[in-house]
Design a protein that fits this description.
This protein is α+β, with helices and mostly antiparallel strands. It contains ten helices and six strands, in the order αβαβββαββααααααα. Strands 4-3-2-1-5-6 form a six-stranded mixed β-sheet, with helices on both faces. The longest helix is centred in the N-terminal third of the chain and has 22 residues.
């Protein structure tokens, strides 16, 4: 019988210590650029810099004047695509796609656009000398060749109301006056604990910061599941911007946040109400077309080198968002009144 080949174990302890020290230092350096942190190691998201509004004298609402620059993997950009679709603005507002480059560490255009190959170049066109972060989504004005806004929370409010004169579904109001207080309250809670909460888990640089963020995340998900057991949407029987903002995080949760961001206490599909709620929103007219599962996995697993150095993109999980949700009985009025 031939002898079994000898297997080598880990390198000597000293080499392990040196390698771990070097990698830890490099990891902190890369994370400092990717995810700014507080002294406690908690992730701190920088504020958006461009905050102008369509509907003002400088930026009137006109068809074919504005473009949405998005990354299909980005949940913040995904919000704008969902509202654009629900409002029927596909013919009025163009979409320009960018994707993250794992080697360059920036968003690059799929095709050269406005004379630019990368998003930082476009930010320089809008504001020469700009030194901040170049992020998606971007609402671009082709007439003045500048960025109107790059804050998704404000952009979806504009898409909901400012373009009604050219929207195919102008009567659909996702931010109605009688629900604004409810919507704003949900948005504040969900942003901190869920939308940004998953990033606070994934980008935490200390155990304490991670555990705090993870506890807040699942406490809010548990609360949302209880509320959505008795009502179809966060605002009751009407879809609102609060649902849109929650949806784009839930859509990515089981695919990337559960594993890559260590949000693995429970999957969304395991919740009795949140799982069907996610399927309900996904199956609404026009929403599924804004969702790209493969781009989500590619952009997160392939681009976030400090979290996934090998760049291996998992095959799973298998998720069926077309399955029946059985939530129709919770609604008392039609979703879209055309």
């Amino acid at each position: 019988m031939a002898p079994r080949p000898k297997t080598k174990g880990l390198p000597p302890g000293t080499l392990i210590k040196v390698g771990k020290f070097a990698w830890t230092q490099m990891w902190h350096l890369m994370m400092a650029r990717l995810a700014p942190r507080s002294q406690s190691g908690a992730y701190q998201r920088p504020a958006s810099q461009f905050r102008q509004w369509v509907g003002s004298e400088a930026y009137p609402a006109e068809a074919h004047r504005y473009s949405l620059i998005v990354g299909m993997g980005c949940p913040w950009a995904h919000r704008t695509l969902v509202v654009r679709s629900l409002k029927g603005l596909e013919d009025a507002i163009a979409v320009v796609r960018a994707q993250p480059s794992p080697d360059q560490g920036m968003w690059v255009f799929e095709d050269e656009w406005e004379g630019c190959q990368t998003l930082p170049e476009l930010y320089q066109v809008a504001q020469p000398g700009y030194t901040g972060r170049a992020t998606v989504p971007v609402l671009w004005d082709s007439q003045t060749r500048t960025i109107v806004n790059n804050e998704s929370a404000e952009m979806i409010v504009m898409l909901n109301g400012a373009f009604n004169a050219i929207a195919a579904h102008a009567s659909l109001d996702l931010y109605p006056d009688d629900l604004k207080e409810t919507i704003d309250t949900w948005n504040e809670q969900i942003y901190h604990a869920v939308n940004n909460g998953v990033y606070r888990c994934g980008f935490a640089q200390t155990q304490a910061a991670y555990e705090e963020a993870c506890s807040e995340l699942f406490a809010m998900l548990d609360q949302l599941d209880q509320v959505l057991t008795h009502q179809r949407y966060l605002g009751g029987d009407r879809l609102t911007l609060a649902d849109v903002r929650l949806f784009t995080t839930l859509f990515r949760f089981d695919i990337v946040y559960y594993s890559l961001f260590k949000c693995n206490r429970r999957r969304i599909q395991d919740y009795p109400a949140l799982g069907p709620y996610l399927r309900d929103l996904y199956q609404m007219p026009g929403v599924a077309a804004t969702c790209d599962l493969q781009a989500v996995k590619r952009d997160y697993y392939g681009n976030l080198f400090p979290l996934n150095p090998g760049g291996i993109i998992p095959i799973g999980p298998d998720i069926t968002l077309d399955a029946p949700h059985h939530r129709e009985s919770l609604a008392q009025r039609s979703l879209v009144e055309e």
